[in-house]
Amino acid sequence: MHKPAFTRAEPDARRQSLIAACSRVLARTGAAGASVRTIAIEAGVSPGLVNHYFASVDALISAAYEHLGATVTAALAAAVAAAADTPRARLDAYVTASFAPPIADAELLATWIALWSLVRARPDIARLHDAQYADYRRMLELLLADCGTPAASRYIAAIGITALVDGLWLELCLSPGCFTPDQACALARAQIDAVLAASGSPTPFISTAPGSAADNS
């Protein structure tokens, strides 16, 4: 008898379910509460099954970090793909995607905080962190290049924009009543305007989205 076609996908599905369970445990208890036992209970499986797919809880936490980074990257890429086909629209979409789901999410932030707490203690997590943020900046530099930003200015511009977005995203997730996603987008676009103007890039984009600077003029 032939095995059902779906059996090949089962190991990947089980592995992903364990990664998802690990992320939920990290969000709820922090890194200190993440163990093979707690993750197995969260996933509804035996500790032996966790050990079957991951050599250690550290390996599972690393996989959760990689998965979380891939989730954010996919959301950013989807935002760019859905944007109008102009360099500035793609740049705006990439920068402002952080202020909407699935990136702007309190549970996602809680998981990130748990993982960030390990950056100084675990070299493997530090390497993942550095690689992921380098990828974010590299994509931002490419989008800035499409908008005409000179090569000499792109790296620092990408760092500045990333820092602003991270700060707004953090505060939006922690205290969503302080300001709206539209206002965060307007602030980010104003920063992009300043970067492009300083580098002699084309005329800045003026947003007419609710809560934008144009609405308040």
Question: Would you mind describing this structure in some detail?
Answer:
It contains nine helices and no strands. It is an all-alpha fold and 217 residues long. The radius of gyration is 20 Å and the shape is elongated. The model is unreliable at 1-9 and 203-217 (pLDDT under 50).
> How many beta strands in the DSSP annotation?
0
Sheet with most strands: none
Strand content: under 5%
Distance between the termini: 72 Å
| Structural classification | mainly alpha
* Rg, Å, rounded: 20 Å
Average pLDDT confidence is 88
Assembly category: single chain
What are the SSEs and their pairings?
Blueprint: H1 10-29, H2 36-43, H3 47-53, H4 57-82, H5 87-96, H6 106-116, H7 123-146, H8 151-174, H9 181-198
Helix pairs in contact: 1-2, 1-4, 1-6, 2-3, 4-5, 4-7, 5-7, 7-8, 8-9
Descriptors for this entry?
217 residues, mainly alpha, 9 helices, disordered C terminus
Describe the structure concisely for a colleague.
The protein is an all-alpha fold. Helix content is 68%, strand content 0%. It has helices spanning 10-29, 36-43, 47-53, 57-82, 87-96, 106-116, 123-146, 151-174, 181-198.
